[in-house]
Amino acid sequence: MSGKTYSRCILAAKAKLFAKKELGIDLRVGFISAEMRESEWAKELKSSEILKELEVDYMLDYVGCSNYQDIFWEAFADYDIVVADSFPAIISHFKMVPKENRTEKAIIFDFIRMANLSVSKNDNNVQLINQATKDGNYKGGTELPHMMSSMSFVKVDGQQRFTTFETNRNNGSVNRSLYFSKKENGDLEFNADLYESTYEQTADKNKTVAELLKSIRDGKTNIDSVGETSNASVNSVYDMGTGGETSEELDEVNNPSNV
Q1: What is the pLDDT of residues 104-128, one digit of tens each?
Q2: Which residue, among 15, 40, 19, 42, has the nearest Cα to 30 in the 3D structure?
Q3: Which parts of the chain are beta strand (E)?
Q4: Which segment of 16-25, 177-186, 214-223, 241-250 scores lowest on mean pLDDT?
């Protein structure tokens, strides 16, 4: 199964391919990793070749450097779509910059301010990965989600994972569960049938679910088919950035409220 970072990176890569194929637009899509080295990312590329669509910044290479924050914000602004993983690690790296004397709370507040200014100036999309604790809290307190356009969660339901938005200021839906799984080629497969039969409505009360789903699919572009590869190495067990289960990932599995 796939978690927060993996699913967001796959979606970012698929958005790039979709924009090129369907809209003729070339997007720059990047992954800012504060937890993974290049050798670890190479394992992910073997798991899913679609991830090659992402440019990667390995922030561990710059920890302790006086210009770490400059490098980070340059990367943050450099892409049309960027996935940054993870917020707690980034804040820790900021604290390790020589002569950094702000409190952690001040660093977090300044980060939120800089992030919003950057997005406003560059008109890009940023997916910022965070971690949740057992009591449902997360780094940045209540200030972080209040300043973001949306907040989505990856949760566990038995052996299945699903994503849901709890805040969405982009005219999108909230509190709807979209289940997904990892295919053998590393791509994601979303349970569209379950989602549509659960949430889509029809004026014809006599129409069967099968008829409803067929009418919904007619004329619809299937984004799930974009970017599928047939020659990717099979690795349905390995999960992004782990090399084994971390304490955060065990929390995810054992506590469905985790981000």
Answers
A1: 999 999 999 999 999 999 999 999 9
A2: 15
A3: 29-33, 55-58, 81-85, 125-128, 150-157, 160-168, 178-182, 188-190
A4: 241-250
